[in-house]
Amino acid sequence: MRLARFLVVVLLAGAITTCSRSGSQVAATSSPDPPQCAKIFVIAITSSEATPGVWDCLSEGFHSRLQGQGDNVFALVAPLWSHYRYLGADHNIAMFDLTVNARVEAAVYNPPVSHVIMAVYLDSDGRVDHAKAATPT
Questions:
Q1: pLDDT confidence tier of residue 7, bands split at 50, 70 and 90
Q2: Distance CA 25, CA 102 (A)
Q3: Cα 18 vs. chain centroid, distance in angstroms?
Q4: What is the value of pTM for the model shown?
Q5: Which is the most buried residue in 47, 66, 130, 136, by most CB within 10 A?
Q6: pLDDT at residue 69 in the model
């Protein structure tokens, strides 16, 4: 499982590097901390509580795709993910390793996995525009 997770991270990092090279002057960030809005977003999706500031950290386009509004928009009794680890960022993409919540129904991830990799895409203002999760194979 660790090897599979490592391979997914390497492949995603390679894809991000390739995408960033196709644009103009894009530099990877080496900050030990994620971009502020990306961090607030992953805190919100890994918590069952309302997360202060998350609504303001979402782009208008993201707002339009959600059912509900406000800082409790992601608050669920049993969120899909329970913890996160920041992996790094490249230009407008922040990468996270999310731990799958043990209380999530087995049918959600079939076959079962314990971690997913999530890319959080930020707009030009640093707000979260969208996010995509990939499961290791």
A1: very low
A2: 42
A3: 19
A4: 0.76
A5: 136
A6: 92
**What are residue 39's phi and psi, to 5 degrees?**
-65, -45
Mean pLDDT for the stretch of residues 7-32:
45
Q: Which two tokens stand for residue 106?
A: 């087995």
Q: What residue has token string 């899909």?
A: 80
Residues 8/136, Cβ–Cβ less than 8 Å? yes
Do 122 and 35 contact (CB within 8 A), yes or no? yes
Name which of 62, 110, 100 is nearest 79 in CA terms.
100
Structural domain boundaries, residue 66: 2-134
In angstroms, the CA 59 to CA 41 distance is 12
User: Does residue 10 contact residue 136 with C-beta atoms inside 8 Å?
Assistant: no
Classify residue 81 as exposed, middle or buried by CB count within 10 Å of its CB (0-12, 13-18, 19+): buried
DSSP 8-state assignment for residue 65: T
Confidence of residue 14 (pLDDT cuts 50, 70, 90): very low
Q: Could you tell me if 20 and 90 are in contact, meaning their C-beta atoms sit under 8 angstroms apart?
A: yes
Q: How many domains does the chain have?
A: 1
Q: What is the CATH number of the domain that holds 15?
A: 3.10.450
